[in-house]
Amino acid sequence: MSLPIIDTHLHFFDLAQGQYSWLKHNPPAWPNLAQIRQNHHLASIPAHDRFTLAGLVHIEAGFDNQHPINELHWLAQTLTGFPFKAVGYAPIDAPPKQFSAAITRLMTPTLVAVRDITEGADSRRLHTPWLQENLIYLASLGLHFEAQLAFSQCDTIELLLTLAQRHPRLKIVFNHAGFIEQTQPCTAVLQRISTLKNVMIKCSGHEMLQSPMALDKWLGHLIDHAGEDSLMLGSNYPVSLMQKHYWQVWQDYFNVIGLSSTWHKLSRENASKCYHLRTDLD
Fold first, then answer.
1. Across residues 73-78, what is the average pLDDT?
2. Strands across the sheet with 199-203, in order?
3. Does 280 map to a domain?
4. Average pLDDT, stretch 31-49?
5. Which pLDDT belongs to residue 281?
6. What is the CATH classification number for the domain harbouring 89?
7. How many domains does the chain have?
């Protein structure tokens, strides 16, 4: 029997139609870069005898950061008929009028959230005085914020979690499990998130870590301290090609978790609720 999954974190590329300046002109020093720096579409993911890709959440990939609606239009064309939701791009530190205008331009039926990468020194942009106003505005539209920074950036994480605690309608989803490393497991952050129903964590991006725990310890640490109701699985395709092909990511997740209620929650059920994503199998 095939197991349906919802991939909560992947990217498709069309290098002819999109700009992708970060990938074309100033690429990161990733292994297997040639496999990543090419076109990736839904058809690039082959069928599998154990798993079925029942739905997906596409994360903005720099298709056109000056006009990010163009990526959403492209997705609507390339994914016609396939169950998906989209996370678009908007600068979270923009003044409220500018931010609301940017969101208005992004509004499409598949839009569910916005992401603005604030890793490292860029996390200072989350300390803008109008962060709360911008996040509450997203919540008023039924959208959420996808935060991408390390849980070890304590002051900024505290800011986001305090806002989430004060405003239950405000939803935050942390990408790549907050980049927890073997040397920085951030247990207290995970335990606090376990108490917040409006904060979720995506288990993805393991291949991006500098000193990772083994996959079984990483997933076990997340489940033990954040709790299975706070977690979702994602592939981070095609960046995951740094280490393994698409379905190997999911096979490795399955080998750790096994067929269980935890697997069903992390591989599909939590994602369906978080992203309001119904699949053809529902």
1. 97
2. 3-10, 51-59, 84-89, 111-117, 144-148, 172-174, 199-203, 231-233
3. no
4. 96
5. 73
6. 3.20.20.140
7. 1
